[in-house]
Write a structure and sequence with these properties.
The protein has about 400 residues and is of the alpha/beta class. The chain contains 18 helices and 8 strands. A hairpin with a 7-residue loop joins strand 2 and strand 3.
Length: about 400
Amino acid sequence: MRYPDLIEDQKTFNSLIADLRKTPAVALDTEFHCEKRYWPDLFLIQLAADGIGPVAVDPLALETLSPLAELFADNSVVKILHSARNDLVILFNDIPGFQVRNLFDSQIAAAFLGYGEQISLVNLVHSVCGVRSRKKYSMSDWSARPLARGQLEYALDDVRFLVKVYNALADQLKKKGRTKWFEGESESLSDPSTYSVSRERLFSKARSAGKVKKTSFPLLWRLVNWREDTARDMNRPRFYVGRDHLLCRLAVLAPRKVESINSLRGLPGGFVDKYGEAVVAEVEKCLKSPPDDVPQIRLPRHDWGYAARKDILRIFLKMKSKTLDLSPALLLPRESFESILENPPRSMKQFMEREDLTQWRKEALGTELVDLLTGKLAMTLKKGNSLRFVKVK
């Protein structure tokens, strides 16, 4: 069946999804607005498969997106997305019971093949297919109806070549022996918790924005939760309510009266009128009944060898990344990098038991990294003044 470029009725959408589920792989992209919102608003869905589409779907014209959930839960069909997290956070939020199976993120695949850690879809399509996609409508107002023809063509380009890109990248991963690495890195994208808001992480981030003593942590925790609830209820970004540094100042001040909030420097205009009473109420609640679930903040304790390990590990990662044709940040993310510096593994057994590293990273780094941190691998200069790491005899 041939479908129109833009689907605006439920019956045709249902038929499209039924046909797409008969294909081996489906490309998907979305157009959304996240400015001035707590959750992004979805305004367009683009889909394509071999012999079908590309097709755009107007979610504003549909009764339900549940057929799309059935497609994503179908393990027999590969779902191809580029930088999938951006699209999936919307689908997980908008579609009840949404699940993801058999996902292929072309940006992650490209990172394992030397295209760069965060290559754009435009550049990846050009590298793989030799085609330059349109950029003119990237900042369009996707909420406006009707959509301009140029907008629609721009949106369709985002999935027009994605199945071809998938076929090429999947083949390259197989030839390079990195399919399992890719799959290990992609696992978290199918986990709904990946897209939930971590209030503990928000608390840690807020605490780092100002000088807050431990005695003020309970109030800061209450304020972080108050801001999150307020932003969600208003459907506005959390910084619309108050930025982290303001929450820190309020936690230290612990105002018992609305008027006392005005003593803070850099107070956003209208903040006291909008939220003053609510802040004072949070202070009173905290004083009467301090929360017992304040996240534990573990402050790093650097031993005398920390700085040396940091320098050497950075050099090692840079050289190892070049050998593997991967970016250092992909090979060892920042949080794991810091954790290893603070608590370096003393054996392969300790290293393999780490829960903050995926299996592919353990395979890629394992023996050499442990040898480096236990003094069995040394850094030397060879002729030409180039660095190398050698086994210590």
